[in-house]
Amino acid sequence: MYQVEDIQLVESKSYGTVLIKAKAILDYLMDHDSGLTLKEIHEGMEMSKSTTLKILTTMCELDLLWRNDEDKKYHLGAELIGLGQKALADFNIHQIALPYLKELRDATEETVHLGVEIADHVEFLEKLESPRSVNLKSKIGGRLNLYCSAMGKAILATKTPDELENYFDSNPLDPLTKFTLVNRKAIMKQIDVVRQNGYSIDDRENEVEVFCIGTVLKKHNQVYGAFSVSTPYYRMDEDREKRIIKLVLETKEKIEQAI
C-alpha cells in the first residue's frame, strides 16, 4: 500500500499524478477485506475529498471499481479480473526477485535459493551459489518438503487452518535427519512462530549440517514464492544469525515493493 510520502516521491519522478493516486486507491482497497466509503478512503489516504471523489467516479466509469448504493462503499470492479488474469500469466517472480537476491547473496556470502510451491513441495527456481566453499545438494528444478525446510515453513505459515489440515493429512512427515520434526503439533508451533516473526528457520532439518533462514514473498494476500539463505551450520552463531535475519527481512520488503 502506498503511504502519502510514497505517492509524493513517485510523483516527483513520474508523469501522471492522477494515475499514481488511482493506483494507490486500488492498493488501499486491496488491503481491506470489504469495501470502503468515500470518507474512509480519502481520510485513510490523506487525500482531499474532492480529488478522491473525482478519481473514484472515473474508475467506476471504467469498471475498475463499483459503488454499492446501499452502504455507499466502493469495491474492486470486474474489469480488474481480466487484467489480473493476464498479469498472473505474464508474471515472473524470478525476474523481479533476482537482482535483490544477488545483493543478499553478496551481503551474506552464503547460498540463496528462490522457490515456489508446486504439489505440496517447494521447487527451486534459482540457486545463487556462495562465493565461499560450500557443497549443498540443492539444484534448480529440485524439490523440498514444506514441513522441514525454511522456505516450506514460510509458505505453510500463510495457509488457513483447513489448508494446513489437508496438507498434513496428505503428506507423510518422514525424518530426513535426526533434527527433523515429525510431530504435527511441534511443527504447528513452529508455524505460529514464523507468523509472529516473519521468517522461518531450518536448523539442519532438511540437510544435516545446513542451517537456513527463509521467508515468503506475499502481497495483497497472494503468495508469489519464498527465498532462503543457506549456510553450513559451523559458520552460524547468534550474531551472524541476527544479521542474516535482518538482511532477509530487508530483502523481502524490497521484493514485495517491486511486485
Topology:
Blueprint: H1 4-11, H2 17-30, E1 36-37, H3 38-45, H4 49-61, E2 65-68, E3 73-76, H5 79-90, H6 93-108, E4 111-118, E5 121-128, E6 143-145, H7 150-156, H8 161-170, H9 184-197, E7 200-203, E8 210-219, E9 222-232, H10 238-258
Antiparallel strand pairs: 1-3, 2-3, 4-5, 4-9, 5-6, 7-8, 8-9
Description:
Residues 16-78 form the HTH iclR-type domain. Residues 79-259 form the IclR-ED domain. Pfam families: HTH_IclR, IclR_C. Keywords: DNA-binding, Transcription, Transcription regulation. GO terms for molecular function: DNA binding; DNA-binding transcription factor activity. The protein has 259 residues and is an alpha+beta fold. It has 2 domains: 4-88, Winged helix-like DNA-binding domain superfamily/Winged helix DNA-binding domain (Arc Repressor Mutant, subunit A, Orthogonal Bundle); 91-258, GAF domain (Beta-Lactamase), CATH 3.30.450.40. Helices cover 47% and strands 21% of the residues. The chain contains 10 helices and 9 strands. It has helices spanning 4-11, 17-30, 38-45, 49-61, 79-90, 93-108, 150-156, 161-170, 184-197, 238-258, and strands spanning 36-37, 65-68, 73-76, 111-118, 121-128, 143-145, 200-203, 210-219, 222-232. The strands form 2 sheets. Strands 6-5-4-9-8-7 form a 6-stranded antiparallel sheet, with helices on both faces. The protein has a 3-stranded antiparallel sheet with strand order 1-3-2. Helix 6 packs antiparallel against helix 10. The radius of gyration is 21 Å and the shape is elongated. The termini are close together.
